[in-house]
Design a protein that fits this description.
The protein is an alpha/beta fold. 42% of the residues lie in helices and 14% in strands. The chain has 2 domains: 4-41 and 286-389, Alpha-Beta Complex (Aspartate Aminotransferase, domain 1), CATH 3.90.1150; 44-283, Type I PLP-dependent aspartate aminotransferase-like (Major domain) (Aspartate Aminotransferase, domain 2, 3-Layer(aba) Sandwich). Strand 4 and strand 5 (149-150) form a beta hairpin. The structure holds pyridoxal-5'-phosphate (PLP).
Length: 393
């Protein structure tokens, strides 16, 4: 049975995480380990014009009126996007945040106290682990399938045996595996948590990056009781660096709004206005179509390079969106060591153990295909494959 764990091994893992973040700041390093997509995929000039106009025409009163829950027009535009995805989310339940990361922190703070237990996926995005550690939470890791995400059987078992206060999950193109929970299973997941009276904090920053023609079913569309806190941002799909995120907080909206006011007070007002104006008239759908096409093409090229070079016994599940490829290497490979060896060759990767409270996935790595798959990147894949094929010692 899955058991709760503390964070005793986290210090060393954090060192690796900060090392990777530092390394990808250096443009000489090949950013296969980066969490960020290439910044050149985004309409930064156009966004800059919207931002300049927002600052020039700023209503002085907006510094007060746009305090949490946030700019009215931006929340209205977000509400319209939910509607387009089949979910009825009123602007009144949306709270604007400084990126999804702040959203996750606010949700955790709103529904837990230090010492509480939360359920997370295994593997999971390391920043969720870091946030839970900082808040003094214990975590129980629920196994996930690299293609279909969270195991409902394991989750149900954990809910039955442990006092879980909240779940922090990614249903769409999860970081690091790229898994996608099928529609029927996400309906069942929301119902299961509703029955157990446990809130779902859904970290959903990759939902817009689907390669297929349709967006996955939005969990807010199957959440009649408002038990889902749907957290997202524009960081991965439109405007990295603008730090605009939000929470569709359902029944927790007032609680979240108070948390936001008492922590960071507000999110930058001109940027909120610029994002609202862009959503209204900037050509977001057109941009998303281009972005999805570029990412899907880059995924195919990275998979081809991996399949050409990596040793026998390497396994991968092709993602249907996002920009991460999760590789299971032969069990003889030590991913933390591989990370160090790769960095010496000017290549960053994200080793599996940073995605696990128990430091599992020691033979797995996450590669980023959000950057153009050019000659430099192909050569880096070949070098990585050679390192992974050479006995380590
Ligand atoms: C799964 C996931 N959630 C949240 C974030 C952070 O989002 P933001 O930059 O909007 O804070 C990231 C960034 O890597 C991520 O991968």
């Amino acid at each position: 049975m899955t058991r709760p764990v503390g964070h005793s091994t986290q210090l060393a893992v954090s060192d690796f995480i900060f090392e990777i973040l530092d390394s990808v700041k250096d443009s000489a390093v090949v950013p296969l380990g980066s969490s960020f997509p290439s910044p050149y995929l985004f309409p930064l000039d156009k966004l800059g014009r919207f931002l300049a106009a927002a600052a020039r025409h700023l209503d002085p009163l907006s510094t007060i009126t746009d305090l949490p829950p946030g700019n009215d027009e931006l929340r209205r535009q977000l509400s319209l996007r939910y509607l387009a995805h089949g979910a009825s989310v009123s602007p009144g339940e949306i709270v604007i945040t400084s990126g999804a990361m702040e959203g996750i922190n606010l949700c955790l703070q709103a529904v837990t106290r230090p010492g509480d237990l939360i359920a997370i996926e295994s593997p999971t995005f390391y920043a969720g682990l870091q946030a839970s550690e900082r808040l003094g939470l214990k975590v129980i890791e629920i196994p996930t399938h690299p293609r279909e995400g969270i195991s409902l059987t394991a989750l149900e078992d954990a809910l039955r045996h442990h006092p879980i206060k909240a779940c922090l999950f990614m249903l769409n193109f999860a970081n690091p595996t790229g898994s996608l929970v099928p529609d029927e299973r996400r309906r069942a997941l929301v119902e299961l948590l509703d029955r157990h009276d446990v809130p779902l904090i859904e970290d959903d920053v990759y939902a817009e990056l689907h390669f297929g023609p349709h967006a996955p079913l939005c969990s807010k569309a199957v959440d009649p009781n408002g038990r889902v806190m749907h957290v997202s941002s524009f960081s991965k799909c439109l405007a990295p660096g603008y730090r605009i995120g939000w929470i569709a907080a359902g029944r927790y909206a007032t609680l979240i709004q108070r948390q936001k006011l008492s922590t960071s007070l507000a999110t930058t007002v001109p940027v909120q206005i610029a994002m609202a104006d862009y959503l209204k008239q900037g050509g977001y759908e057109n941009h998303l179509r281009h972005l999805r096409r570029s990412l899907a093409a880059q995924e195919a090229m990275l998979v081809e390079a991996v399949e050409a070079h990596f040793p026998e016994g390497t396994r991968l599940a092709r993602p249907q969106g996002g920009y991460f490829l999760w590789l299971e290497l032969p069990r003889t490979v030590d991913a933390l060591l591989l990370h160090r060896q790769a960095l010496e060759q000017g290549i960053s990767i994200a080793p599996g153990p940073i995605f696990s409270a128990k430091r599992e996935f020691g033979h797995c790595i996450r590669l980023n295909f959000g950057h153009p798959v050019d000659e430099r990147l192909r050569a880096a894949v070949a070098t990585l494959a050679r390192l992974a094929s050479t006995p380590q010692g």
